[in-house]
Design a protein that fits this description.
Blueprint (H helix, E strand, L loop, with lengths): L2 E7 L2 E7 L7 H7 L7 H20 L17 H9 L4 E4 L2 E4 L10
Amino acid sequence: MIDKFELTGPRGVKQCIVYEPLLTSLLHFQAILDPKSLPEDLLKGALQQLLLALDYLNSEARVIHTDIQTKNDSIFREWDASDAVDPSPRRVHDDYTIYLSRPFRCKKG
């Protein structure tokens, strides 16, 4: 752990923890591949590990990661472009926006 700190925002105090990166980012790894796409098995494994980490943070550490967005990871570029043309159905509840899930298709290769 590099650091830990608290941030106070409109929804209260948030605990923040900063760790050193363990490996290269998916964006960097994708940039060195030819053609610049992640193999499906690598993408599936990375997403599985991401979901397991988020589940642990939520269920065990009682922490919610609040900055997961497609612009943080280039693997969602095509999905973002599709959403710009044909936005996902959504509903606003209080000050939260709830989006209907969309299919996510990986390209082979």
